[in-house]
Amino acid sequence: MEISKDLTAASSTPIVLSILNDGDSYGYAILKRVRELSGGEIEWTDGMLYPVLHRLERLGHIKARWGESETGRQRKYYRITASGRAHLDEERRQWKVVNTTMRGIWGSIQVAFTRTPPARPLLLLAPQGI
Amino acid sequence: MEISKDLTAASSTPIVLSILNDGDSYGYAILKRVRELSGGEIEWTDGMLYPVLHRLERLGHIKARWGESETGRQRKYYRITASGRAHLDEERRQWKVVNTTMRGIWGSIQVAFTRTPPARPLLLLAPQGI
DNA sequence: TGCGATACCTAGCACTGTTATGTATAATGG
DNA sequence: CCATTATACATAACAGTGCTAGGTATCGCA
After folding, report:
1. What are B62's strand-pairing partners?
2. Between chains, do B18 and A93 touch, taking CB under 8 Å as contact?
3. pLDDT in tens, B45-97
4. Which of A19, A34, A102 has its CB closest to that of B11?
5. Who wins on pLDDT, B127 or B66?
6. Which of A2, A7, A22, A52 to mutate to test the interface with B (most CBs of B within 10 A)?
7. How many helices (H) does chain A have, and how many strands (E)?
8. Which residues of chain B are within 8 Å of residue A100 when distances are taken between CB atoms?
9. Minimal Cα distance from A91: which residue of B?
10. Per-residue pLDDT tens for A69-121?
11. Rounded to the nearest 5°, which phi and psi values hold at B67?
């Protein structure tokens, strides 16, 4: 499926950070991982990904190091930083706000399934004050 | 909450089309509706909204007509077109693909909460090897 | 009279994905 | 042995778009 430019722009950073948050990776592998995670629906180009990686590195959200594959190929591995994790958290919060808002407009179907918490939980594992 | 530029760009079109899909409206009212729908989290500026409306009109997704408020103020009302509804459907599909993908990565970070209870929970406070 | 809310509009800036192109190596198939 | 594909990284020019900052105007209220 073709994803619009704007949606790609909005999702590329949190997706890359999320992938790196699961473990170090490199450009080509990230492209394949995105395709895999989306069930083949999202197809990124390398010309779009590399500038994203360079920008994230410039901002200090990820750090690069050169490494070698089993076959001897040079690879540039990226690792998420503490700053990157904080940024990812912020992006996730924003994404959820927007997603919730949009689903609110779309979904007259969606029923809020709020459940009143029990007045007295069966197990008081962490009482306040401790 | 501050929503990033990219996320705003990606969500502005489907949000505007969704609001107009619920009924005709005009610029200033759309701004208030977005704030209301998001629970006050999304604050659009008019300088951002009007170009969006003009673009959607140029693309044929909405149609404008001048009207009058109860007080005699001039208002530019917008109505969604058939083309606009089709575009909205397409945007929703894309949004869902991306959202599902992102939730997939985020979910993998969290610990899976399987129904299978631990064999001896009380005694497994420390993993083997300690 | 002054102020905030209502109601619309636009120019220039900065950022970013797309497209196209370049470089190089390893594996595969004929 | 050679051609093709996959792997692996990089950048320049282009086009689209929100943001900032500014402008115009009416209405209700104190």
Report:
1. B80
2. no
3. 898 999 999 999 999 999 999 887 777 778 999 999 999 999 999 999 999 99
4. A102
5. B66
6. A7
7. 4, 3
8. 38
9. B4
10. 777 778 899 999 999 999 999 999 999 999 999 888 886 443 433 333 333 33
11. -140, -175
Distances (CA, A) of B69 to A25, B25, B29, B57, B63: 58, 12, 12, 22, 18
- Find and give the residue nearest to C25, measured CA to C1': A73
Domains and CATH numbers, chain A: 5-89 (1.10.10.10)
Element (H, E) at A65: strand A62-68
Q: Which residues pair with A25 in a beta bridge?
A: A78
pLDDT value of residue B71: 73
Count of CB atoms situated within 10 Å of the CB of A97: 18
Nucleotide of closest approach to B5 (CA, C1'): D18
